Amino acid sequence: MPTLPLSAAGQIALAAGLAAAAVYLLLPKPRMRSVAGGIAAAVAALAVFSLWLVQAFGRPSHDAVGTALFALFSTGALGFGTVLVAQRNPARGAIAFSFVILSTCGLFLLLAAPFLMAATVIIYAGAIIVTFLFVLMLSHAGGGPSGENDRTREPLLGSLAGFAFVGLVLFTLYHAAAPAAAADADDPSAPVVGKAALPAPVVTPDERAKLLEAAGRFEALAERAKALDPADNQAAREAARAWLTDYEREVIPPSLLSSVTEPGGTPSPKAASVPPGGSLPRRMTAYRHDGQADAAKARASELYRDAKKRFNAAEDAIGLRPPGTPLDTALFAREAHDTRGDIRLLAGMADLPARNVGNLGLLLYADHLLAVELAGTLLLVATIGAVAIAGKKGAHS
Amino acid sequence: MSDPVGLALTVLALLLAATVVTACFNTSLLRKIAHWPLIVACGSAAVVALVLLLKVHDAAGDAAVRFVSEPVTWFQAGKLAVNFTLTVDPLSCVMLAMITFVATWIAIFSGSYMHGDRGFARYFAVMGLFVFSMCGLVLANNFFLLIAFWEGVGVCSYLLVGFYYDKPSAAAAARKAFLVTRLGDTGLILGLFFLWRLTGYATTDLTTSFDLIARAVRDNPAKVEELTAACLLLFCGAVGKSAQFPLYVWLPDAMEGPTPVSALIHAATMVTAGVYLVARCAPLYAMAPEAQAVVAWAGGITAILAAFFALAQNDLKRVLAYSTVSQLGYMFMALGTMGSVSPTFAVTAAMFHLFTHAFFKALLFLAAGSVMHAMGGVIDMRRFGGLRHVMPRTHLTFLCGAAALAGLPLLSGFWSKDMILEALTEASEHPGPHSGTFYTLLLVGLATAAMTAFYTFRAYFLTFWGARRIPEEAGHHAHESPAAMTVPLVVLAFGALFIGAAVEPLSGHALSHFLGRTPSLELASAAPGVHAAEAAHGFDWALAGISSALAIGGVLLAWWLYGGGGPEAVPDALAPVWVASRNKLYVDEIYHGAFVKPAETLAFISRQFDGFLDALARLISYVPRAVGLGLRPIQNGLVQFYALSMALGLAVLLSFVVFRISR
Amino acid sequence: MIGLWHYLAVAAALFGIGLVGFLTRRNLITMFLCAEMMLQGVAINLVAFSRYHGNLHGQVFTLFVVAVAACEAGLALALFLMLYRRGKSLDASDWQGLREVGVSQTLDTEPLAPAPAEEALPTLTPAGARPARTEEEPARV
What we know:
By secondary structure, chain A is an all-alpha fold. Chain A is built from 15 helices and no strands. In chain A, helix 1 packs antiparallel against helix 6 (155-186) and helix 12 (291-320) runs antiparallel to helix 13. By secondary structure, chain B is mostly helical. The longest helix of chain B has 45 residues, at 587-631. In chain B, helix 3 packs parallel to helix 15 (343-374), helix 8 runs parallel beside helix 13 (289-310) and helix 15 runs antiparallel to helix 19 (483-503). Chain C is mainly alpha-helical. In chain C, 55% of the residues lie in helices and 0% in strands. Chain C contains 3 helices and no strands. Chain C has helices at 4-24, 28-53, 57-87. Chains in contact: A-B, A-C, B-C. The A-B interface holds A 153-154, 157-158, 161-162, 164-165, 168-169, 171-172, 175 and B 638, 640-641, 644, 647-648, 650-651, 654-655, 658, 662.
């Protein structure tokens, strides 16, 4: 990887200056517009920026696919953003904007926010862009008599101000990241928060595999229970015994249960002192107590308790029931099916956190209900306002 | 509604309603009939007041009688609790009847006199308020309530004197009247608080506070000095309102208002307020002989001074105005004898004169108004003359009024003036520190009587006798006034001729007896050191003879000098006196030099200083303006320019934060 | 590994590009699109933090940002339509009437390059007269 003979601040300044020059050259104006020069400067700025990024925040070593996708999407967003700014024709600008949106959505996806991605695509690409194009058509987007598409307001000052702002923000980022990295270097056992690595899922893939396996067993059990003849007393008893044997085996991975926080919300000291053999000590779950992790833990413990209860009930049923009476195989099947569903849901938490749209909904309607209501009201008012504004017959038209 | 207090309230309600209704009549359609509400209200109020008078008279019998309305708290502040309460006693109901009666006829006269004026409705609305305030003042049984109505009277007089507000002299006269009476009002308010203190901060109700103060002074004679101060301060108010020396200057100028207003002010409403106030506070004055001397002196000086001024005035209304001042001085002389004679007698004398004076002065002013109406607004006696054939009814009624004012024997003015002179005689005979004062004042009174007769008839002869002269403003249709104007004149003329005889000698001193039943006067008679023995009203033939002789002498002198009508010829020997009289002894000029000029100079200096400060402030104000001039171009209306400035500012701030903190 | 900082840096750059566009472009619609782009930068920020903290609050917040952006878009478009109806122009610089009294109007002095002549639209060559139907040819339904 090539390095630049410049300090971080110098690199930022260089990138910002190049970007400003690029945008200045690219902006539509009567004189001093050079598309080729602008593109060259833009590419150079992007290169310097990426170099600085790699140098400052660590080079992408493993996860080559993720890195490549990140590079693709971010380059796409910035590139199409530049196109939008530089494009004379607003309709083409709108198309470029839709590509910016798509790139952003890719980044959302990388950030494990698939629902947001979908929502953004629908709202922006589907609604806003279409409306914009509609307005553009209504207003004969050929450029007015003042040539607003061919002129810019203060191109030099504007690009300088904008990129100076960006440079300052990047510089701040750099300074904020430096102490964290230093702390990381001092203490190798420290949690990876300092490195600002994005965390692992709540449920590790290991645990997820175990859970899925258990779920498969229960599914098979349910199928078998359904196929049983209730009158066939002996077979039913066999099946019940098999079910109980399954319960004897490990259903919930103990690592999930051991990280359960005490009711009351604060992370228990026990959680931190999990035996070092497991995958837990470095896991974020042990140190976090956000809603997502709490929900996973709570669900795991609940499932564990339910399973135990069912185990006991089944044991009682077999032991107390007189040998002649038929067993309720349908009940068996239902119970087995339910247990299987619960386990699968728990395993589903192992997926990327935000793929769990259900959790997002839970959060929206539990923690942010007022905000949801307010946003809804705002939308309604805005709709009415837009209708009122656009419906007014212009006095001078 | 048949109890006396209810009747009194009815009077007030009628007048207030008339005011409000009239105020709503100021539309082009209704303006022509805007006088009717007031005439009806005044007329019914007069009837109600008469009924009230009879009721109180019946209730009085031989005992003192007083009806006090249930006190309602008007406002309260700390220890000060002010009640809204009215009192009806002989003194107030005589005043009430007189005011409403005279006001009724003036209202009828005005309906014709003011006909076609732009402010027709305004005139009657304010006049209604004026009469209402005066009635309220008479009835008020609380000092604060009294002051409220007192100020109401002042405001209405301001509005009416300045009725022709687009005329600078009228506006100036209104301002003068208001400011000069305000001088006195300040004293009144201070005196009021003094009295409140004397009651031990207990009450501001009149009747109760009189009792409390009387007891306090009896218990602690040292408080007399405090009481004297309070009485003098109250008298300040009376001086302002009743146009006594030295604050009389506003009254002659008040002629700028419409003539019926002058009649109202001079006869019934405004100027009698001061006399009434002193009469009402008789229990206090009776206990303060020093204050009494001041009252008497002020009255005497005013009486003779104003009479002297009236001798040579050319303006008919001005003659009448000075005669009012002079007659008011008479009344105060009578009030000043209180203590040296029985308070009942003194107050009766003053009130009797006030009563008769209301009739003949209203008559004289209305007659003058009638003359003015016919002469097209001219009131200068040098410009007209010999009107007795042109305006026969006006001439006869004016003659009645003039004779009554001059105090020709057996007419109203004769009886009341005689009573005042009698009081003065009695006071001068009463052994006391001030007997010399009263003797002097008796002579002053006699001299004033002679001068009154002279100037009244001078005006009469100049106006109605001699060759017929009519100013060109009157045009060719100088004529007698319409019936709506002459009927009030005739009614009032009967009053001027006979009312005095009717209420005193012919009815066995009915007025004296009735007024004597006023509780506050009885309280005054009970004050320590008061000569309480009520003298038998033996008619003093000698005094009556002397005053009649003087009056007739004055009339004859006037006839001798002016019997042939104007223009007047002044003997050379008397010319300086004439000039002095015509110029009012230069009192106005002295006031102007002594008070107005210094105040103007001070105002001028203040204004210059203010201008200097202004310039300084303006200089400071130029600094932000200059800064603004420099900054203005950045407000160029371009949204993006603003956004750019915002982004630049943000960048600068951020860089400051970053480089400052990262260091 | 791509970490939080990478996302934040990209978001800042996106925000900056949008800011420049908003400051310099004069077409109201382009300006608005640039503002939306700035919002996208902020949204990336929020989502990245959401991922960083392992919870969903950032995403919820982004949802609200999107909702507000939608409102804004609706209102802005209505306003643009009204402005266009009044002034027949979408130039933000045409609306400088709110400037201080006495400040002269900002006018564009630089001449524009002459607009390239629009290519003539292809036209069909006029066809000949309609051939008359022959009797032999059966009428097609």
